[in-house]
Description:
By secondary structure, the protein is mainly alpha-helical. The chain folds into 3 domains: 27-100, Arc Repressor Mutant, subunit A (Orthogonal Bundle); 104-230, no CATH class; 238-328, Arc Repressor Mutant, subunit A. It is built from 15 helices and 8 strands. It has helices at 27-37, 47-51, 57-67, 86-92, 104-116, 123-131, 139-152, 160-174, 188-191, 215-221, 238-251, 262-267, 272-275, 280-291, 316-328, and strands at residues 71-73, 82-84, 136-137, 202-206, 224-228, 258-261, 298-302, 308-312. It starts with 26 loop residues before the first helix and ends with a helix. 37% of the residues are buried.
Amino acid sequence: MTAERRPLETCLPHFARHGSYPPRWGWLPKVHAAVRQDPHVFSRPDATVLLAVGSSMVPAMRFWALAFGLIEPEDEGRGSGYMTTARGRWLLDEDGADTWIEEPGTLWLLHWWLLSARPCRVPTFWHLFANWGLSRVSRAELRTSVRRAAEQTGWKAPSDNTLDRDLTALLAMYAPPIPTERAPRVSVEELLSSPFRELNILTFDDVEAVEAVSAYRAAAVRGRQIHLQRIRPDGAPAAIMAYACLDYARAQGHTGPGTMSLAALASAPGGPGRLLLANETLVRRAIERTAGKRGNSLAIVESADGQALLSFGEDPRALAAGILADHYS
């Protein structure tokens, strides 16, 4: 198969490993501290006491810490122990950049880490942000599209029940809760269950009054639809966007000075524009705001044919780390 026919090739063929739970307030710092103290915390009989959650949430906490790249298995996964990663220690140590995840930009950074991971552990999430080209989608449409993408990638298609658990976690993570007839008021606990709702990435649209192009289309969209805020001018801070561009350049194989097309950064599946909800103008603006602090190491230049390029004068990994350090200092 060609790369174009393998839409989920950067992901693991894993669905709903989170048990339908989104990452909740305090989970990531709690896991980081627990793993530093005991690498085998998740296999301990008193794990629920140590992590102060129910038994079904323990594997979910482990899953999300792994998915964000904050912990990793010891001994290449042969044992039951885990250890914190350099990324996790940089962010969540007692003297880390944002120990309790209080800086709003950290949520955007974690969102980028989650979806840009190689391999990504949430293929349903990745497909919505990286591959889905429209700003609205129903649950049924997204289920069908993810199943098709899995088959095109060479995987066994997940069941509807499995994908529904994935969608439950996705919407609980990013979309605001919706009052119902049985629960006309949303509880404080529900409002505070996921910090990523602050990013205002997903909402729901009432599409009863949407004019459809055909009777079939009308049947398909009737009811609530998921609305993806495809362009967010007030989204990720400039430093996080610039970091993501350089991190993406590194993932594309750049290990020294080089250039990348701004158009590609903004529109490539899996690129910072798609995953951080920005167009080329917003990507350019973020880089220009960050470049002034980096001397000649970071700039926007034009190619001979007039194409706008991101130019980096050193290893993008080191340059990206410096941008994060400046942002959090």
